[in-house]
Amino acid sequence: MLREVKVGIIGFGTVGSGVAACLQENIEVIERRTGVKPVLTGISDIDITTPRSVNVPKEILTTDSDALIDKVDVVVELVGGTGCAKEFIIKALKKGKPVVTANKALLAEYGEELFSVAEKSKADIYYEASVAGGIPIIKILREGLVGNKIERILGILNGTCNYILTKMEKENTSFSAVLKEAQKLGYAETDPMLDIEGTDTAHKAAILSSLAYGQWFGLKPIYVQGIGGIRLEDLKYASELGYKIKLLAVIKQENDDVQIRVHPTLVAEDTLLANVSDVFNAAMVKGQPVGEMLYYGRGAGRNPTASAVVADLVDVSLNLKYGSHRRVPAFRIGKQFRNLIPMNEIRTRYYLRIQVVDKPGVIARIATVLGNRGISMSSMLQRERQSSENVNLLVVTHTAREKDICDAVADMEAFDCVKDKIVFIRIEDI
Amino acid sequence: MLREVKVGIIGFGTVGSGVAACLQENIEVIERRTGVKPVLTGISDIDITTPRSVNVPKEILTTDSDALIDKVDVVVELVGGTGCAKEFIIKALKKGKPVVTANKALLAEYGEELFSVAEKSKADIYYEASVAGGIPIIKILREGLVGNKIERILGILNGTCNYILTKMEKENTSFSAVLKEAQKLGYAETDPMLDIEGTDTAHKAAILSSLAYGQWFGLKPIYVQGIGGIRLEDLKYASELGYKIKLLAVIKQENDDVQIRVHPTLVAEDTLLANVSDVFNAAMVKGQPVGEMLYYGRGAGRNPTASAVVADLVDVSLNLKYGSHRRVPAFRIGKQFRNLIPMNEIRTRYYLRIQVVDKPGVIARIATVLGNRGISMSSMLQRERQSSENVNLLVVTHTAREKDICDAVADMEAFDCVKDKIVFIRIEDI
């Protein structure tokens, strides 16, 4: 028997319009496939007059979100941010109304609180759209891979950053020039700092790592470095060495501990991950027993996000139909606490670009510092001098400890023969 | 509250051992994540004495599958084939016991019957492991992308074929040499015909297309061509033209109709799909509104298949816990019948390799035939003669109708100047 479910959307922006359009266009196919019918019965926004990319009956528009929450079966929060969005969600949950949200910032910062309210109210909270919109990665982790221990997740989770890095490399352009273009095209926000400083990726890393390891890590302990410092020459040198540079979320189990970090990363160019270009997202997941997998798709934007929200709406509707609320809980704390490995203690390989004065003895001094810190080089390359009297010395290390690298960098930066800051970028072997 | 569910496995082969091992090793994490505990309480097989790759208590082994079905809550069918496996499944379903199966051949041939028995008995039948074991593609299609119209699925769904094609290309070896090696390594069955003739891929295409379009297509109407006819020289020429050859399942909507076909296919080498190598599987899915996505992972073998079976066991267990049986039905017929486009009527681009006598006027004759059949060339390449008096003429066409290509091939094969059969391979533009 068909079950109709009244859906209310709070926030009638790009994504809200996409959800409304998807429900209009695909409702028949959803109904036939699932036996439930999520019917859009209300949309609230502070602005209900500006024309949107979708036509909805005027009578379902309201500025009164509280009234909307009262009259629907499920609330879709698409306001974004950590302000009133949180209030709306808590209000809905406390009334026992299930919530679907795309709000990664809110979940990363207040997930634990929201999930606890949801648990007390026995209401569902679904959030597929919060990470890599077009890729059902939350469902994959919570259900499709539920029998696996998760050994590693490597994620390209921010389309703007991936677009910028791809363009810089393909078109030989500087970071700032590409950023301006991306803003013109609407790929990057007017204030793109959340993206390019890596915070957005860290929000998503917080969500994925918590799901993978049953421990709420939150945002604070995650090491985050954005792509603002990536120079065109580093992309070129990386390419000569057989790598591409991607902003990666690195989530990894190491014995009983976990590392979670977000930073630009060298990835071997012949891997699928390195070939995820433009605005696309991807998550490479290694599970035991499933092995290595990769999921690729659009991470953001009206339509991919709408697809995720509607899938959640169907899950919530099915739970309402079958009385199976919280069948797949929003988040469950595991028994085994896993400690986060402090950034100083992580071990990986590194790419170093050291600008040095082109004089005899310089390479020997660099090599000595690295050796003294127990860092072994897998390759060293000195580029021919181009204009100034400085040359770029490129070093790729074997696995080393972060603290040793940082100390060695500090040692070297104190040398007269070393000019400018040393650039070091972590390498992830796949 | 934790719900324990008694699991019985019928068929203690490679996959059965993998499922038992996964339940042993990961049961704690599964329990913590889900609140259900699938407990392996029985395994039946005709051989219960040969040592397996996993240790299970002797007392849970039996040769009596009927008795096993009676005493468990859920039956995992891992016998394979279309014989007694079908009987076991029907017996279990009729007793109201949910079934998890990895049996693609059985589903492709008798899916409609099995699903109807399941519907009458109100019992779940889950089959994630039947297509691309390590990739939760069934869950993705039925749940993660449930709000989408599916425009296209391109699948590399048989690891053996992909391994053979990859090895031929990388190691410059003939089909038969690689096949022998694959058999030695255990990647190919002793009787590999199901794989290399494309039947296994067609089984999976039948399942995916039916899920995508809500119409049970079955195996019979699917056009199937294996990789037995692929010559090393075609891989090389394809590479010169910028393509790789993959055995693809092509499932596509065209207006209100659908095409489903399995055959070797040229795929542009700079796409992710072309770079899916060795035994890996991938499915590229294009949905509306989600856009293009790619899912990549191991398609078969003990561990990836076990991951899929255990995920299904959790879904079944949750349904038992919440009384939400058939929450996501095994398969639902849609209202809109979609016709299968006859193979003769499909339109795509083609690669032709024509062995011709190296004489004046030959190219003109070939070009004339193609022109008369309304086939337009996008490129033509005549290779320099190597040993014999024949040369390979390579033609890449613009979009043409299959029937016109077949007719043109027949016309040309009747020429004196054309030696041997003409090789034609379809191209898929991504």
Topology:
Two copies of one chain form a homodimer.
Chain A: E1 3-10, H1 14-34, E2 36-44, E3 61-62, H2 65-71, E4 74-77, H3 84-94, E5 99-101, H4 104-121, E6 125-126, H5 137-144, E7 149-156, H6 159-171, H7 175-185, H8 193-196, H9 199-213, E8 223-224, H10 232-240, E9 243-254, E10 257-268, E11 280-288, E12 291-298, H11 302-322, E13 347-357, H12 362-372, E14 377-382, E15 390-397, E16 400-401, H13 402-413, E17 418-428
Helix pairs in contact in A: 1-11, 3-4, 4-9, 6-7
Keyword list:
homodimer, six-stranded parallel β-sheet, 3 domains, Rossmann fold, elongated, Alpha-Beta Plaits, 430 residues, eleven-stranded mixed β-sheet, Dihydrodipicolinate Reductase, domain 2, alpha/beta
Compact description:
The structure is a homodimer of 430-residue chains. With 430 residues, the first copy, chain A, is of the alpha/beta class.
Written overview of the protein:
With 430 residues, chain A is an alpha/beta fold. Chain A folds into 3 domains: 3-133 and 302-322, Rossmann fold; 144-297, Dihydrodipicolinate Reductase, domain 2, CATH 3.30.360.10; 343-428, 2-Layer Sandwich (Alpha-Beta Plaits). Helix content of chain A is 37%, strand content 27%. Chain A has 13 helices and 17 strands. The first copy, chain A, has helices at 14-34, 65-71, 84-94, 104-121, 137-144, 159-171, 175-185, 193-196, 199-213, 232-240, 302-322, 362-372, 402-413, and strands at 3-10, 36-44, 61-62, 74-77, 99-101, 125-126, 149-156, 223-224, 243-254, 257-268, 280-288, 291-298, 347-357, 377-382, 390-397, 400-401, 418-428. In chain A, strands 7, 8, 9, 10, 11, 12, 13, 14, 15, 16 and 17 form an 11-stranded mixed beta sheet that branches. A 6-stranded parallel beta sheet of chain A has the order 3-2-1-4-5-6, with helices on both faces. In chain A, helix 3 (84-94) links the parallel strand 4 and strand 5. The longest helix of chain A is centred in the first third of the chain and has 21 residues, at 14-34. Chain A is elongated, with a radius of gyration of 24 Å. The first copy, chain A, starts with a strand and ends with a strand. The model of chain A has no long low-confidence stretch (mean pLDDT 94). Chains A and B meet through helix 1, helix 5, strand 12 and helix 11 of A and helix 1, helix 5, strand 12 and helix 11 of B. Strand 12 (291-298) of chain A pairs antiparallel with strand 12 of chain B.
